[in-house]
Structures are given as structure tokens and as C-alpha cells.
Amino acid sequence: MRDMKTITVAVADDHPVVLESLDRLLQRHPPFRVMHTCRSGTELIAALTQSPVDIAVVDYSMSRGERPLDGLPLLRKLRDIAPRTRCVMFTAHSNPSVLAAALKLGVAAIVSKDDPLAEIVGACRRVGTARACYLSPTARAAVERGEAGTLGGHPALTARELEVVRLFASGHTLQDIAKQLGRSVSTVSTQKYTAMRKLQADSNTHLIRYAYENGLI
């Protein structure tokens, strides 16, 4: 039997138990070889800059630390510094707009944390041997719900507005968000205001409740 070509993998998740589980899972399934296990987006970028891999399995939300690098900014950075690395996004998010934005950034697969862990192996096999995009069942259902371009009867938020809402609802100040996203505080404040207007949210509490109810955090 012909030996399978090794597929190198990096795994990034800020929860040690999840990180170890993903590492062990993939190491048990040839032809995968996990080269990097990273607990932050910054650590992942540093690892791939030094030693690129074929596939990166990346948790969408890694918001620990003062200036975390996660979400759409991390996906953009990955696309820029490791264009040949195919990204498998592993996420608890079910917001169709978030998933659609990730796909536009070139994510090769999205696996929901509501699906069996074996979906990670299936996604890595698919993107490691073909150029087609892969969505786990729950992720696919979420994307299909968002095809009409609205969510909960409200106009769809832009990717930039979604990131501001997600980070604000996660407890970050506008100043923190501006630093993390590389925008001015004024721009972030305007994007938050625009999102609230679109969602008809009349208070920060309403905005945070929207984020929880729609899978942003």
C-alpha cells in the first residue's frame, strides 16, 4: 500500500483541555501530524511565520489577555502571512453573518462545537485532499439560515460591526476594541452606534442580550 503523504497541522485554542484533545485526536489519525499547539492567535501567527503548515485548526474566539488576536482579525492575518495554509475554523458561534464573513476571508472549513469532535477529522481530510469548502452539519444549517441576508428580522450587520459587537459584549471597552482591531476609538464608537441602530437596540444591555441570543459570544 502506498504511504499517504503527511499533512502538517497547527491547532490553536485558548482552553488547554480542548487544545490537548484536538492534538491527541489528530495525532491518532494518519496522515495528520500536529506541528504546533498554540493558546492564542498571536502564538499561532508566530509559529506559522517560522514554520508554515498545511492546515490550521483555529478557535474563532480566543479573547484572553490584554490584546487578544482572534475572530476576523486573526483570520485576515492568517490569510496574509500563510496564504497556502488552509484554515479550519472551530467555533461555538452560530451567527450566520459571522460564518459568512469567515468564508469570505477564505476559511476552508467551519466545524461547529455543537457537532461531534470527529467532524474535525472529517474537515481536515476534506480540505487536505480537495479545494472544496467543508461545513459541519450545524455550521451548514446556520449558513443556510442566513442566506436571506437578515437575522431575526433585522438588517444584516457588516463584518466590522459584528466584530465590534462581539468584543463589546465580551466585556472589552471601546478603547480596548480600537487597539485590538487597529481602528480609532471614534470609528469603533460609530460602528457600535450603527449596529445598535440597525438592531433597534436602545441600550448596551439590549445589545449584549442580542449578542448572547444570536451566538456572537
From TrEMBL:
Molecular function (Gene Ontology), one example: DNA binding
Record-annotated Response regulatory domain positions: 8-128
Keyword annotations: DNA-binding, Phosphoprotein
Residues with PTM 4-aspartylphosphate: 59
Every HTH luxR-type domain range: 150-215
GO terms of biological process kind: phosphorelay signal transduction system; regulation of DNA-templated transcription
SMART domains hit by this protein: HTH_LUXR (SM00421), REC (SM00448)
InterPro entries, A to Z: CheY-like_superfamily (IPR011006), NreC/VraR/RcsB-like_REC (IPR058245), Sig_transdc_resp-reg_C-effctor (IPR016032), Sig_transdc_resp-reg_receiver (IPR001789), Tscrpt_reg_LuxR_C (IPR000792), WalR-like (IPR039420), WH-like_DNA-bd_sf (IPR036388)
PANTHER family: TRANSCRIPTIONAL REGULATORY PROTEIN RCSB (PTHR43214:SF17), TWO-COMPONENT RESPONSE REGULATOR (PTHR43214)
Entry protein name: Response regulator transcription factor
Species whose genome carries this gene: Burkholderia cepacia
